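INFO batch 0412 | record 1 of 1 | parsing
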Amino acid sequence: MGTVKRTFANNLLTSGKIDATDGLSGTIPATNLADASLTNVTSFPSSLGGVVSSVASDPPSPSEGQIWFNSTSNVLKQYSLVAGTWATGGNMGTARRELSAAGIQTEALAFGGFITAVTGATEEYNGSAWTAGGSLSTARWAAAGAGTQTAGLSIAGYTGVNITNVEEYNGSSWTAGGSVNTARRSFAAAGIQTAALAFGGFDTAATGATEEYNGTSWTTSPGSLNTARYSLAGCGLQTAAVAFGGSTGTTTGTTEEYNGTS
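INFO prediction complete | emitting tokens
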């Protein structure tokens, strides 16, 4: 690793301040700076005990600027907030609205929607550009999406009437999956292809109906949304999902969490 010069003493005082008044200079031997010691801490200096907390697991809700030593992973950590920003990505090949999506930022999937008519067009995103994928067997809009780019779900939706059709994507083409029990549109979904959750939407009116998918069939959950609504958003997993926003006839910001039962 070589040598590291020091031009001041980095003594840590009991007050938590660094004492840099000694004016020391010299060379720190490379043997004292083994690469492993920077990420594989084997002990926590007692002199830091009054300044940095030593904990077995990371704090569940740390504050900005908080520093702690994780004694399980032997890593010194700090929590800081970074302002989020949006950057321009590659434009889709087919402009549309009321479409569905799945995946992550660098492996996304977009499908269905409405252009001047309903469409089944599917596109895949690699983090910079979109390419055409296999089209849905049943073109639809206002459907819900879940899963990943190579294991996606298109759930129910609207073709001119509410439908129950579900399709599964394997990374190149769509095939029929198990149909939902409640035909609906403008609803939300969460989870993966073999463990998905569908909730809310519009049937003949706003609904709070919730269904779980095991990769083959849908089961109606006894845990309907407390506030029936449509045009809502959702995320998470089948056993740890969030439903937020939407309309009951009036726009709402109501948020609910699902634990796999209610």
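INFO post-check: Residues 4-78 form one domain.
INFO record closed
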